[in-house]
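Quick review question:
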């Protein structure tokens, strides 16, 4: 799943994207956080697949698995 996440300096300034497309992982995560459902996202972005959204969530989970307990300010 995580292989769907690509990083290319020529695409979106090197931000993690989906399958080399111009869909940054952060955009998908923000859509989910705003309350959009997976079917709504897929309807709005027909280039995306359900596995892409799962890959974004897995990627975010791995990034959040930190070893230190530092406080994050919001």
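Suggested answer, residue by residue:
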């Amino acid at each position: 799943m995580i292989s769907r996440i690509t990083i290319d300096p020529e695409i979106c300034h090197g931000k993690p994207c989906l399958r080399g497309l111009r869909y940054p992982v952060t955009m998908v995560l923000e859509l989910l956080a705003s309350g959009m459902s997976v079917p709504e996202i897929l309807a709005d972005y027909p280039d995306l697949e359900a596995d892409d959204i799962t890959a974004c969530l897995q990627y975010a989970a791995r990034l959040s698995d930190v070893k230190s307990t530092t406080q994050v300010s919001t």
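Why it works: The helical segments are 25-33, 38-44, 50-64. The beta strands are 5-6, 17-18.
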